[in-house]
């Protein structure tokens, strides 16, 4: 059985994965990837992977909450 992302999210890392962001936002994995590809969720492409910088993600969340 695979552990839930909440059990594996390391708050000391500089980036989140798309799966972790999907869990944090309560989105499906597919919708989270769509938002990353469309630029809705701030992310960087590194090779074939998408990484979401923690500081930019939380700044984006703070901006979303204020709007």
Distance between the termini: 39 Å
Mean pLDDT: 88
DSSP helix fraction? 40-55%
Q: By helix and strand content, what is the structural category?
A: alpha+beta
Describe the structure.
The protein has a three-stranded antiparallel sheet with strand order 1-3-2. The termini are far apart. It is globular, with a radius of gyration of 12 Å. The protein is of the alpha+beta class. The mean pLDDT is 88. It has helices at residues 5-8, 18-25, 29-38, 54-66; strands at 15-16, 44-46, 49-53.
Q: What is the structure about, briefly put?
A:
By secondary structure, the chain is an alpha+beta fold.
Which labels suit this protein?
single chain; 67 residues; alpha+beta
Layout of secondary structure:
Blueprint lengths: L4 H4 L6 E2 L1 H8 L3 H10 L5 E3 L2 E5 H13 L1
Antiparallel strand pairs: 1-3, 2-3
């Amino acid at each position: 059985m695979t552990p839930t992302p909440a059990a594996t999210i390391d708050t000391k890392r500089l980036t989140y994965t798309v799966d972790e962001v999907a869990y944090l936002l309560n989105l499906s994995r597919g919708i989270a990837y769509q938002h990353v590809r469309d630029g809705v969720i701030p992310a960087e492409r590194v090779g074939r992977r998408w990484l979401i910088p923690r500081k930019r993600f939380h700044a984006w969340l703070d901006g979303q909450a204020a709007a």
